[in-house]
Amino acid sequence: MEGKRILVTGAAGFIGSNLVDALLSQGAVVIGLDNMFNGRMENLESAQKNKKFTFYKGDIRDYDRLLHLMRDIDIVYHEAAFTSVPQSIIMPQLCNDVNVSGTLNILNAARIRDVEKIVFASSSSVYGDTPTLPKHENMKLDPISPYGVAKQAAEAYLVSYNRVYGLNTTALRYFNVFGPRQKDSTYSGVIAIFLAQIFEGKNPIIFGDGKQSRDFTYVKDVVRANILAGLSKETAGKVLNIAAGKPIGLTELTKIMIQESGKKNIDIEYTSVRNGDILHSYGDMNLAKQLLGYEAQYDAVSGFKEYLDYYKAKFNL
Ligand SMILES: NC(=O)c1ccc[n+]([C@@H]2O[C@H](COP(=O)([O-])OP(=O)(O)OC[C@H]3O[C@@H](n4cnc5c(N)ncnc54)[C@H](O)[C@@H]3O)[C@@H](O)[C@H]2O)c1
After folding, report:
1. Distance between CA atoms of 35 and 65, rounded to whole angstroms?
2. Where would I find the NAD-dependent epimerase/dehydratase domain in this sequence (predicted)?
């Protein structure tokens, strides 16, 4: 990455900021863009101490801004998005404007500016609740939520822009990412929410019977996959799963979280299933291994242990 000039959209968000730090540590010159809809400046505290980093507050719906920022850019990592599945059910138009039209703006500006590589943050939500497991890239997509539909449409634009304009585009379908800097708001990932609840002495509440399973992916693995994809020619026009490749049931994981946290008198509670949620999900990792040489270095439990250490240190717990 030494000497590369990189634009990261959604740079003040959970994944974007972790990616920014990793790119800077590898010697890249990084421009971060975020409209602060869900981002936090504290996520960029260490990046802002680095002279090779510049942050701009701005919106991916502003095409002229993108065109301006993409002058002399080699790689674009497009992480900015309307990221909440439940909120996309309440605000599908806004979700489409940001996640579909915003992505199209990125592609159009990248094309005009001859950007070498565009890596897009897609999501396992494009698979929906199909019974086939593991989810493999070539299976029929059946998203349930407007968020999943928007990610599917954006992916299709990336593939199309590779075919018709020869842009080197790659979509990475992330599966349930977790780790440092993830928010613990109602709409965040379940591990961040439960961790905060456990330390507040509250019982974690699972939607459904807890038998649902997920392929929780530690943020460091996602960052590594992005760096590999950013430098890869083999993945042009491709869509790849990025996961740990190993499912875990939600009740099982929550019990481990409670135990590892060392907190007493915490019990799991259960409530009704959430609209748009899927039952089981885990990713087939063969294509990412074949094209990127990517293999996860963490599973849900080892990732959680590292996240817990970070969390305790951050809040002096
Ligand atoms: N976290 C996960 O488990 C997960 C799973 C699959 C896919 N993804 C995708 O990964 C990417 C990063 O997600 P995250 O978990 O870091 O979420 P996040 O909400 O922390 O980060 C997204 C960032 O995008 C910014 N943003 C939103 N709208 C914008 C706009 N119009 N213009 C500029 N910036 C805007 C937000 O302020 C935020 O900082 C997203 O594209 C998300 O859809 C995340």
Report:
1. 12
2. 6-243
Q: Are strands 248-249 and 213-214 parallel, antiparallel or unpaired?
A: antiparallel
Which of ligand 1's atoms lies nearest the C-alpha of 102? 31
Q: How many angstroms separate the alpha carbon of residue 266 from the centre of ligand 1?
A: 31
Find, among 168, 217, 161, 173, the residue nearest to 191 by Cα: 217
pLDDT over 80 (residue 144): yes
pLDDT digits (tens, 9 = 90+) for 122-142: 999 999 988 899 999 999 999
The mean-pLDDT minimum among 51-65, 95-109, 185-199 falls in: 185-199
Domains and CATH numbers, the chain: 5-177+218-243+282-297 (3.40.50.720)
Q: What angle do CA 184, 256, 267 make, to 5 degrees?
A: 75
**Is residue 99 within 8 Å of 147, Cβ to Cβ?**
yes
d(CA 314, CA 317): 8
Q: Which of 15, 60, 78 to mutate to test the pocket of ligand 1 (most atoms within 8 A of CB)?
A: 15
Give pLDDT, residue 187: 65
> Is the C-alpha dihedral spanning 242, 244, 247, 248 positive or negative?
negative
The residue whose CA is least distant from atom 20 of ligand 1 is: 13
pLDDT tens digits for range 280-317: 889 999 999 999 999 999 999 999 999 999 999 999 88
